[in-house]
Amino acid sequence: MTTQMFGAPIRRKEDPRLVTGGGRYLDDLGHDALAAAFVRSPHAHARIVDIDASEAIEVEGVVGIYVHEDLPGRVGEPLPLLIPHPTLTHGRTGYALAKDEVNHVGEPIVMVVATDRYVAEDACQRIRVTYDQLPVVVGIEAARSGELLVHDDVPDNVAAHMLQEVGDVDAAMAAAPHTLTLDLDIERSACMPMEGKGVYARWDRDRGELRMYSSTQTSTGVRAAVAAKLDLPLAKVECIAPDVGGGFGVKIVHPWPEEVLVPWAAILLGRPVKWAEDRREHFISAAHERGQLQRVTVGFDDEGHLLALDVKLWHDNGAYTPYGIIVPIITSTQLLGPYKPGTYRCEFWSLYTNTVLVTPYRGAGRPQGCFAMERTMDAIADELGLDRAEVRSRNFILPTEMPWDHGLLFQDGRPLKYDSGDFPASLAKLKDLVGWDDFADYRREAEAEGRKVGLGIGCYVEGTGVGPYEGGHIQIETSGRVNVSTGLTSQGQGHETVFAQIVAQELGVRMEDVYVTTGDTRKMAYAVGTFASRAAVMSGSAIALAARNVRAKALRIAADALEVSPEDLEIVEGTVRVKGAPATSMSLGTVSVLSNPLRYAFDEAAKAATQFAGTFDPDKPPVADDEEPGLEGKDFYSPTQATFANGMHAAIVETDPVTAEIKILRYCVIHDCGTMINPMIVEGQVHGGVAQGVGGALYERMAYDESGQLLNASFMDFLMPYASEVPTIEADHLETPSPLNPLGIKGAGEAGCIPVSAVIASAIEDAEGFPITRMPISPYDLWELRRRHADGEIPSLHRTTRTTHPSSKEPTA
Amino acid sequence: MKPAPFEHHAPLTVEQAVSVLTEVGHDGKVLAGGQSLIPILNMRLASPAHLVDINRVAGLDTVEVTPEAVRVGALVRHAGLERSAEAYAALPLLRQALVNVAHPAIRNRGTTVGSIAHADAAGEMPAILALTDGVVEVAGPSGSREIAWSDFFLGALETSLAAEELAVAVRFGRFPAGTGTAFTEAARRHGDYAMAGVGVALTVADGVVSGARASFVSVTDVPSVLDLGPALDGVEPGSGAWDAALDTAAEAVRGHVDPEGDIHASADYRRMLVTELTRRVLPQAADRARRPPPNAAFGSESAVRPLSSRPNAAFGEERGGR
Amino acid sequence: MTDLGSDVAGITERLHDVTVSVNGVRRSAAVPARRLLSDFLRHDLELTGTHVGCEHGVCGACTVLVDGQPMRSCLMFAVTAQDHAITTVEGLCSAPDARVAPTGESMNPVQQAFAECHGLQCGFCTPGFLTTVTAYLEENPSPTSEQAREAISGNLCRCTGYQNIVKSVLRAAEIKVERAEEQA
Fold it and tell me: Of A612, A637, A662, which residue is a domain's last?
């Protein structure tokens, strides 16, 4: 029998290539291309008065210099608003090159094309732009006050205002025995893939065809956008995502200005043009996320059961809203996590500021929502003197209550309905892994040594695998090579491997015979993209369905040739054979030959196939009416709703009693993404997500000053964690299959980072004895909080004064 | 992020280097390791018209140990000095500090003399030059001169080195027998510029402290040395009076430093931090003062985070899922 | 604004003939003095395995071995590398202890270990880790897990969370021993 491929920790097919320098990322292509560079606004808000490029023209090697007025037709129109929403009443997008006004530092104003990037930057440096500076709006408080406006025609800086309510929150709140209000703050961070964005375009003048490469999470999206912008037939535009050096969300936005401008210039100049974003550009002209102020009011009973949850949040969407309200709408729906809120109301305002625009970053609003819900759970436990895990447990949606409909509309406009999950089992596993019940003893020992330690917990539910669809196409060549393609792209998730595993399993072929192509519009024209932890669920399911079609066709053809019934056949390691009589067999390559009536004897498989030529029926056409030539198949997967993965994390932290330095001693994860295709890859996704979460919890923030300058736009000052800052992650899994798709799988890509800020805040709070309400937190921040706590500005947790609690002896800072 | 054009000069001798520097004056910059300079050039925060690349100049790549000093040539990479067994035996403080300079790949290229000439208040080695009462050896159009550390550093990124002069070496002074040294710093991430750092040298004679001094990273605008003798002299490390003496020393540090705040930490936090770091690092120096000279094997110092407490093994990294 | 054509007058930058030994092969190109070693390798010699992640020396993706020592190729000029020996990720494949894998690629122990231990995801930062770890294990053939973590602490990775990279370093040390024994 074929070795079990699905579910096994198979080594990745892409790695031998990637570890030997064989990767081909955007800037590894097009050595003959001209280079583009941009003059970007140094001001956060200004009118452009004049652009003088006369000195730049002198620079040898400059081929073209372009400003907004040079852009024809739709190239010069505002960039598209990708995801409109009825509540997005004041959506605004920028231009490919700024027209009259700039709204954040980094907005592109002039494009220079030159023989190489050095020369292009020389020219940029010599271009003089005169600005008339305008008042700047930075930060949610400034945006919310509405005193100064980012866009003159957007009152109060409100892009969108949305309210969803389930049940009568006001009545339930009024009747609740206890209520609490928490004000919570999460700061800005960013995806920050190691490879920036990039675009490379070639124009074939003879054929009138554009070939472009983009470091994107959606090549089909880029293709359609560029065809529309440049007024080209879709059939004359190809877009390929080569190897992509990480995405994490920022590369799903499309088209970026450069994705329009670079192909436009390539056509105009009749020469290949490339732009590879540098790190500074990535900081100031890509996208950020996470910045949100949140106010939670919660009503609960004496046992800690939620009765009413009333959430208001203010979302900083930056200067423009190309991606609509996806981030705050996800926060507002996914905030609920594994809990039943009793009644729920969430109201949000999405606000403009003169900062880099905001689009989804791994987790996409969920880390903020999880932070709100989990801080609330800890607060309830503290208020009532209950164990924090117990309070969570009392509010869980139980497995017997699945599917659970929250009565809300999710990001995809469909009902927020959980398909499966076993939250009590996950919590039990987590408590066991971290040693939850032994922690009080550990804390006592630590305190005796003068150490401050704390235990934190966070739970989340993540809607993954959102639609509308993905497709899979499989073709078996006469050599037996299995070509698989799907349209969405890859940025390190191991798609070549996991999709090959699915095909190997479904078809009965060897892994090494399967070749997967992603993100190439020549191979699969219909696709959505890689985001929302959807690739495995969507493309994996589509490929499984396509493989089943191909398998059925192969069995049909082979059964005919071998004169047996298809039910008597099996496919093992690429050979179709009769069950129990394996000598009666033919290779899939031979089946492929048989599938095509045109059979030149080019190769051994074709020669071998002649023996199965069969009887010739002059009344039938060579290709039957209900058949197609070739051993191939295609299918699409389009689910009615998202599938909901979940997880629970716990951490033990230690804080230095004097310097307030924060160290994560242990980090434990229980993760449930349904059936796992490749546990090694799932675990890798969890590790990476947690590391990114640790960055968001302890290190990374976008430090804007009042004038809208980003003060830390470099890797020196934007503190992405090195290995020295990331703890060893102890992970365990639960596999609660999804009933929604043929493989029982759920998405895993984003999960790891979702609860980390909540978990670390919970642990630091537990160590310190006063509430932590703002993340990320640095040693300096914690030190300041201790000072304010000592001065009486911040109250202690109740547990520090409750005599029965084992940690009541804890010294104050 | 590409540097602006410049004229590249590749002198082969100190004389040629000085001659080119004299010719290009303030339009020129010396390129040795380039680990501080090239990022600035790449970001076009500076665009000198001339770079005088001294990497091919002969005779600048040696470490020499004399009874008085460790002399380090201008082309000695941080890693070369860090690995030098002779330098470590003579002055362990060098390696103690060097392991905190950025990351190994940077230390493989960056030079110790270059980082001193760069005179960044956040640099470790300027502080070490000060602590060791070192000098900078300079070649100029009118011959050589030596500049004592106290005359060398004028301000942030500013030294008394003239545009036509080349720093050809530095000499770190050695300490008397019975001296222990230690260095520690706290950075947001391992290898980052420190929020605060401190190096100390403490001499013990007849069981009691007979001299102690400290210098600082990131909390003074130019390197400076604080004499901790008034706080510690005559006290026996570990004795009943030791803790109080350490407190006095820490308080002296608090009064001495003058940090500035930035996005990573406020001035007050840095002042607290350097005070605490001094308190923690002095006992380490005292221990070493009373121990035999160190084993010179490479790797016998490693940068440790200054967290006071250690995780309990039962809950620590050992239980990690490896 | 108009297209300017490429024939406009301006300052001409002097070109320097730079010759370096790259992966054991003498390679030459005429480049301006400001050409970064990273760009020289990638664009002049078309050895694109070395990646550029920040161009200010922090991320380590561009790390190559210069005379056997890991250095940031974005913080060196090609002219300064004149006459030096450079090893890039492509060159690791021809190390004496490299072996041809069933998939056809020749891999040194570190490359092999990263592939075995899922030490990479998007693969962009990986070449910098591979060169760094290769040099590290030459000096420290049997690191502890803590030392392995410290050894990779000058390189940024946004995908893996580093845990499997630490594992890869330890596994590479084992493979080196296995291959040395096999040769003995």
Answer: A637
